[in-house]
Amino acid sequence: MKKTIYILICFFVCWTSACRKMDIPPINIIQDKDALSNAGGVQAYMARLYSQLPIEDFRYSPQRGLNFFWIISPFPAVTGEALSRDQRGAMQENVDESPWAECYSLIRDANYFIENLPKYSSSFTEAQVNSWLGEARFVRAATYFALVKRYGGVPLIDKVLEYPTPDLESLNIPRSSEEAIYDFIATDLDYAYQNISENNQVGRANKYVAAGFKSRAMLYAGSIAKYNNITLVDAAGNRVCGIPSAKAVTYFKASYDAAVLLENKYSLYKKAWAAGDKTAQYQNFVNMFFDATSPENVFVRQYHYPESVHGYDAYNVPRQLMGANGYSAEVNPTLDYVELFDGLPKNADGTIKTMTAGKYDLYNTTMDLFANAEPRLRATVILPGDEFKGQSIEIRRGIYTGSSAGGISPLLPAGSTANYPTTNIVQSSNASQTPYTLPDGSTMNPAGLSGIFTGDGTCAISGFSVRKWLVPDKPTSEVLENRSDQTWIEMRYAEVLLNRAEAAYELNTLGQNDKNYLQDAFTIINQIRERAGADLLASAANLNDIDIIRNERRKELGFENKIWWDMRRWRTADKEQNSTIYRVLMPFYSANDKKYFFDARTDERNIRYTFDVRWYYEQIPNGEIQKSQKLIQNPGY
Fold first, then answer.
1. Residue 48 and residue 225: Cα distance in Å, rounded?
2. Which residues contact 170 (CB under 8 A, 6 or more apart)?
3. Neighbouring residues of 180: CB distance < 8 A, sequence distance ≥ 6
4. Separation CA 223–CA 257 (nearest Å)
5. Which mean pLDDT values do the consecutive 10-residue runs of the chain (637 residues) have?
6. 306: preceding bond cis by omega (within 30 degrees)
7. Nearest one of 63, 128, 136 to 95, comparing CA atoms
8. If DSSP codes are grouped into helix, strand and coil, which group holds residue 600?
């Protein structure tokens, strides 16, 4: 009996001890006190928040979503900025790659930090705690902006939701109004501006970054209030799609005022710039994207080989400079985009002039056509025959072998979508070109080293390649997938100035007279144009059309993944892309004249872009809709 009692006592002691040990966190799990009670832990937590920010950078495409390592469907190919062999027209983001779940996961992490950091405030100064809380609210605001610009009003969650919970209904959160989400974003960014320090490490927000993001978000909200015609109201009366037009002034003013806060804190990059010197202005614009000390960088995402990389160079260099991966020229700027720039010979309708009296104009070199173009164009787009990495980039469509007596007539009727004839034109079907022997005995590749090959429709399919972001001195041996590490500049001061100019123009049109908004917009646009080497506006009276500001934005921010969202907030995408075939510019060499001519035409692949108006509000993933009876779908899905 005594033996049995002894055994039972030992059992209960051991069982109780085991229970106690189960309450002790495993030593390999980081606890709140480990992460939030010391600066190193907070820094690590912050690094994770920033790494998950929904930024559409080098690793983003509508087809594959955020942070995908292999990008062959580039963002500019859905906007009309560029063509791509892999992008076949306008499209909304792939609903299966929707950032919805990723965004709410990040919002939870930010909410958790906001709720729990104050518990360890005794370990830090008050200023440190407030600054970190400001950063967490900046991250939360930027994430909600990624959601609201896609879906309109979304469930607003500003605290950590616990599961399991006896009150399951508390997890069944309906969508807030679109207006409420923008107001919440503004409140978070105001808090961030008031509490984050003026300086912070690169890649993290300071107070002026918060103000810059507010200028962006509020400009979007103002545009929705003014231009959107789509409305969706839920059973509770929340306007989950759409913002009352009366709020346009409120949001445009908020955007303008936020942009002003960055004045004298950042400046346009002009380190290599010189008045009247086009070469210096071109080089200045190129340098801006690779100078880590640029006074124009507001917010960036850094990459560093080998731990953090992307493949921008491998996918976009001209073919003659491609690396071992065998990719090249994914982003091919359209003629429509190139024609936005100043200094090109233009017809009365604004299209590029390549003919006189029905005959092609002849040039000694392909660059002669662009001799007077604003330097910003050369720094953004590789023009046929321009130099890059010490090589002349050969872009040709073919060699014309016919007679030029009396001039060369159009190769195709105006507006034709047909392929070029084979009579009198030597073309190349693939990269293994058969050189053509010219009348003087020399030889020439029909497409050049980087021109279009008819067999597979690759290389410079628009007559141009992208220049912006390409590292100018990267060796060919390093032009490989996941070998690039240039910094992504998510926000430049130029964008903030353009936000300010647009908001000012809109306020002027809405009858706001408390400031001379039109004069301010005029001054800013001329600042941007001067740095670009473009023609200056003579006076504020010349700023008589919103498209002047919008086109300036397109030129300045081209290939920075901003134009898609601009087209959506302006509600112009469905008008610009209405069975639209974008235009290209094909260089030809006239063998008998030893000169070049250009044929401006529609994309010969005949790919039509049509934007469905329902895409202004994207489809909420059906899996999310099925989780809650309170979560209603957007119109048309």
1. 34
2. 161
3. 153, 156, 238
4. 16
5. 38 34 52 88 96 95 81 83 85 87 97 97 97 98 98 97 80 95 98 97 97 98 98 96 98 98 98 97 98 98 95 94 88 97 97 98 98 98 98 97 95 92 93 93 96 83 97 96 96 98 98 96 98 98 97 98 97 97 97 97 94 97 91 96
6. yes
7. 63
8. strand
